[in-house]
Amino acid sequence: MLYFYIGTHPYGSFGAGLYFHIAEQIQTNGYVLPKTIPNYTPAGVPFAYPPLMFYVVALLQNVTHLDAFTIARFLPGLVSVAYLVPLYFLARDLFGSRPQAALATLIVAVSPPVLQWHISSGGIVRAPAMLFSLVGIYAGLHLFRDGDERWLAPALIAFTLTVLTHPMYTIFFVISFLLLYARFDRSLRGMGYGLIVGLGGLVLTAPWWLSVIAMHGSSVFSGAAGTHGGLGGAVPALYALLRQQIHEPPFLSAWHLLPVVGCLWLVWRKEYFLPAWLVVIMATMDEARFVFLIGALISARFIFEGILRWIRKSASVGRNEIVTFSVVLLATIGLSGGMLYATGGLNAHAGSPSLPGFVDNNDVEAMSWASTNTDPSAQFVVLGDAAEWFPQQTHRTIAVGPWGVEWKGHQQYRYQLHHFRTLSRSHTAAALTSKLMRMDVHPQYVYVPKGAYTIRGMRHTQPSMMLSTMQSSPQYHLVFENDGVAVFEMADGWYPSGPGPSGPMPV
Description:
The chain is an alpha+beta fold. The protein is built from 23 helices and eleven strands. Helix 7 (112-118) packs antiparallel against helix 17 (288-314).
């Protein structure tokens, strides 16, 4: 999958500009935690992210001098391959079967909901978090099932690294650890192991979270908890599980329905651990990547212990040949679907192509121009998802954008997200001007994509009338243009001309 992804994504998919900008600020700050990250909205955003991978990226850039796009293109995929190793061993030791472990690992490796979050640019944080959490869960299996104290230190280290990498994977780790304890141990000794891992991880990570609380208060964590779905996402997660691949060919949809049937089959066999794990994750986390990971384990169990065992018993001739053919067919289906997804060949995101890029050569050229030819204090409104990379590439401020604003709380995050989407859907100069006035936003420049572009990963097309109306408007002066981007400078005194905040909003 990584080979096909790299071959079709010269700049990687989705965004990681904020992450690299954080790494740059860490370098600038002498590797001391910065309080805020500038340029993402005029006031900047609080730096409350778990810091581990930002320090790793900062050191990597400092040592190798690789640019952000190169690291974002390769590093997530390499780590996505690495986390398959602990996944395989977890499945092998859980099932006592190498074939089942291999199939579960294959399913995870090619599942679009997992690939989307880990192989893409933002996977520089998420893929390592998955790696650390799977290592910790594997250690927990041996700690609670086998009572092997040698796994206590690896579990503690893995939990500490997970906490320092990503909050969502920390929740996944904790839930999985508790379920392993409930299934395999339930003793006071096991409870002690869990407390050592949990409390020990909190103590070891205290220098980070205490520093954040000292700078921003404890509300910075609670405020961010609900901005990306938060807890209690059972219905959305189930909905995603059942229709994630509804736009794909039927054979690929069937591949993703296997966990549902397998879950019912396991309950019928009175094997409750995997179904319970799936249900608890669905009830607490609105994240399809974790649902599909557990679903892969269920599918592998169901295929080998249910379907293929039934074939062996029922087929009168050629049983081994039929089983071999079935396994090869399933592997081919999975690999084909994963390859199509990795190359952007499948419909996703409400019909938009899978793994879209936020920037291309035209965007990079336009951002280079902005960095060289505008004042460092200039503010931009950037239409479309190129805005995520814009501050990192230009060190100029975007006036509107949701990235990093989750740490300011749900209300401000939704406010910025709504304004970003609304402005990015502007298709005439009059509509853009009216929206800017309603939002009381005063940029010096407007960055307009031409042709196809994305808004939150969903594909849109900018009609030609957008440029023609802006070029004919006295409020906008064209200062840069290439095949994919036009940059306009706002005329002096343009505000408050127009319909005004109380007037109608053109569309």
